[in-house]
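#struct-help
A.M.: can someone run this one for me? Single chain, 252 residues.
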Amino acid sequence: MEKIKGIFPGIFTIGNMICGFLAIISIFDNELLTGCWLIILAGFFDALDGVVARLSKTTSKFGTELDSFADFLSFGIAPAFLLYSLKLSHLGKWGWMLGIVFILCGAFRLTRFNLQNQEEKNYFTGLPIPSCAFTISGYILFSNHLWGEIKAPGVLIGIILLFSALMVSGIEYETFPVFPLRTKKDRLKLVYIMIALLAIFIKPKLMIFPFGLAYTLSGIGKHIYEFFHFEERPVRSGKMKINQRDFYEKKS
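D.P.: on it. Structure tokens below:
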């Protein structure tokens, strides 16, 4: 029975991988918007993969590694190829260098996640790569829907550099709510996700980018708040308390 239950998360992982491959083919055929939608669909498969694995309690080392390979294809290579095909190709060598930076930072982020995955955590270290790909694709759809083209290519380049830096940073990002929703924080997360899904369902071209950007900025805002917050708070291990500003001063 356990082996049968373990098949279900793998189905969504394979769906993620297939969407990533089809996205690359679509981009190669100059169907850029189709490529964006396939990357976004891969993101939903990736989210369902994790939820099903946790609910069925069928997480495994093999599943984690397979999921990372799928993520690297769908959220690393496919978005980099999309960006290069869209606006970076005219930059010459700087265009493909930006793509390489994004891919390398994504690979680092996935590798670090796998190494830390043995520890049970209620936060992500660094911006998750699916969120980067989801938001970038959302921005392209958002811009194309409003103006029929990508406005301000410099903004897109800035997004690539920002997301690359956030992936390899130590900034903490919230995870999905943990069922059965025993804490207020998990209940609030679920409410936010339901609102986001409803808004995206109603106006997908306009809502994907704002919600993705909001998640990106939430980690930065939380990090800045904790840096300037003078009250003592327990560190993650729970063994001692430390002033957040003192921590950064000692670290530097």
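A.M.: thanks! Residues 61-88 form the longest helix (28 residues).
D.P.: also worth noting: The domain at 2-177 is CATH 1.20.120.1760 (Four Helix Bundle (Hemerythrin (Met), subunit A)).
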